[in-house]
Amino acid sequence: MKGHIIVGIGIISPTWYDSHPAVPTWNYSVVHAKGIIELIDDATTARVLESTIQQYEPSLLEGDGFIADDYQQKLAKGIVGFKIVIDELQGKQKLGQHRNQSDQQGVAQGLSLSNRADEKQLLAYMMKNNIGLGNK
Question: Which residue, among 91, 93, 90, 111, has the nearest Cα to 29 in the 3D structure?
Fold first, then answer.
């Protein structure tokens, strides 16, 4: 079984580059994971779901609960929990490293002005890892 984990992806406008001619392209960081899928039991799946909600939206678990118990039970019938025992990882980053300094700075500026969540995430990743920002 193969899987992909995309850390960040964003379309890069040719107007952000100082160099011309240019065309639209993508910047991305991706991990390809290969391994064996193992199904997990219903109780473990429920614990994983609860811990995920606890991490990302804990208010849903407070009080009487956001989702009624009978509705949760109905939804649970359609959820199949699994884990992947990974035996190989491959990673790639295409974040404009090959572009000149002014092009990289233009991309960083363009991404900083974006209202798109995926492009903001991509810029945050680039900044955290100091890649493709044109500051070298």
Answer: 93
- Compute the distance between CA of residue 15 and CA of residue 23 in angstroms, rounded to an integer: 9
Measured distance CA(117)–CA(130) in Å, rounded = 19
Q: Which pair of structure tokens corresponds to residue 70?
A: 């009978």
What are the pLDDT digits (tens) for 57-67?
Answer: 788 777 766 66
- 101-123 pLDDT, tens digit per residue, is 999 999 999 999 999 888 898 99
The C-alpha atoms of residue 66 and residue 123 are separated, in whole angstroms, by 34
pTM: 0.57
